[in-house]
Design a protein that fits this description.
283 residues, TIM Barrel, single chain, globular, 12 helices, alpha/beta
Length: 283
């Protein structure tokens, strides 16, 4: 089976992107895996610090590994938005395939310092583990929002180049008009595609689009052909899961078997992920 790095390189060559979807329970994991499997596409499962604390760091590694081995399938695990070297080290030691160090609230030099420390540790431990850095600010909460988060700052291409050279990161998550979460209206502001192109040209490594819930398919596709190789979706599948479970319970108030009232949530996640994966991989 090819490595995550090889799948990302392949996507860059083809002008497509890998889908990255966050989970906090088994139903979401199964829904995402089912969608990837039916479309015969590699998939990345993401877990933030809060999500992996809820599931268990070693437990989520075991769950993803079990699917990979049983089906001989390219399903990979990413430690999403990790805010300290200690927690990056925890994920690397546990066997994650990739880790994001999010130093966007730090000053530029401190972000470089800790990101470089994370890269050096991970690559010593296992050269196949990918470390992603992040520049710019797009907010922190994957929820439905009334307005754009305060303090949003786009990434400067020259800063991005300096950051990548200084840290040696494998991937970069820039701020290009994207936001974490999605607006109540269901339609987020347009992505700055010209900026995506400038950053991609400046850094020469794969870009990762965070906070793509709420962005239009057209915008995301333009970002992919301009240098984005991984697209993150979280809020949209959370909303789909919540609404499907809520609707089932409203219609079946006497049902108490979790495997019955959670199944609609699994199916809803699978439907959203299938749709996203198809247009991430359109040529």
């Amino acid at each position: 089976m090819k490595s995550l790095r090889e799948y990302i390189d392949e996507a860059r060559e083809k002008g497509t992107a890998l889908g990255h979807f966050n989970i906090s329970n088994l139903e979401a994991l199964r829904g995402i895996f089912n969608a990837a499997h039916e479309n015969n596409l590699p998939i990345i499962i993401g877990v933030s610090e809060g999500e992996r604390d809820f599931i268990g760091v070693k437990q989520i590694v075991a769950l993803v590994k079990s699917l990979r081995e049983e089906y001989q399938y390219p399903i990979f695990l990413n430690a999403d938005h990790t805010y300290s070297f200690e927690r990056v080290k925890e994920a690397v030691d546990a066997g994650f395939d990739s880790v994001i160090f999010d130093g966007t609230k730090l000053d530029f030099e401190e972000n470089i310092k800790i990101t470089k420390q994370c890269v050096e540790y991970a690559h010593r431990k296992n050269p196949d583990i990918l470390i992603e850095g992040e520049l710019g600010y797009i907010g922190t909460s994957s929820k439905v929002l009334d307005k754009i988060p305060e303090g949003v700052v786009k990434t400067d291409p020259e800063d991005a180049k300096k950051f990548v050279v200084a840290t040696g990161v494998d991937m970069l998550a820039p701020a290009v008009g994207n936001i974490h979460g999605m607006l109540q209206s269901g339609s987020d502001p347009a992505l700055d595609i010209a900026l995506v192109k400038k950053i991609s040209s400046a850094v020469g490594i794969p870009l990762v689009l965070h906070g793509a819930s709420g962005n239009s398919a057209g915008d995301i596709k333009k970002a992919i052909v301009s240098g984005v190789s991984i697209v993150h979706i979280n809020t949209e599948i959370r909303v789909a899961y919540r609404d499907a479970v809520r609707d089932f319970l409203n219609e079946n108030p006497k049902e108490v078997a979790p495997y019955k009232f959670l199944k609609p949530g699994l199916d809803a996640v699978q439907e959203v992920v299938s749709e996203k994966l198809r247009f991430f991989n359109e040529k």
